[in-house]
Design goal:
Blueprint (H helix, E strand, L loop, with lengths): L3 H16 L6 E3 L3 H11 L11 E5 L14 E5 L7 H8 L6 E6 L2 E6 L2 E7 L5 H7 L4 E2 L5 E2 L1
Helix pairs in contact: 1-2
Length: about 150
Amino acid sequence: MPSPEHAADLERVLTRAAQECESGAAWFGEGLPQALRSAIEATGKTIDERAAEVAFVEVGGRSTPTVPPRGARVIALSSGGLDALPSLIRAAESPRLLISRLICPVAVLDFAPGGLRVREIRHGLTAADLQRVLDTTLWSGPDLKEL
């Protein structure tokens, strides 16, 4: 049974990831994305994988990311915390997958040509806290909000 902290982290990731799937046109890889799919379907929403606009893959988990359909925006999910962030970033920057966003318990990060951008951050953390553990430059803007 997961610890209360781990359960809260998983809930944070799944709740935030579900927001990315408003249209219901999504594809779900192995591992954590399947938990997301179950959570979305439990709300009564139907999933259309054939017209996937967004694809969810897991990074930093036990499963090997499967290749999502072409043309879908790829979002990486992870239950790894602040200490795992550097390895999550490296995994998400894999040339095999063109990941546009990473959702983890501590932040929502976008991969852009200009670098790594923090969009949302967990309460109690700052972008400077994230930057301290990262080798790559992190940037944020005035639109930074709480995860």
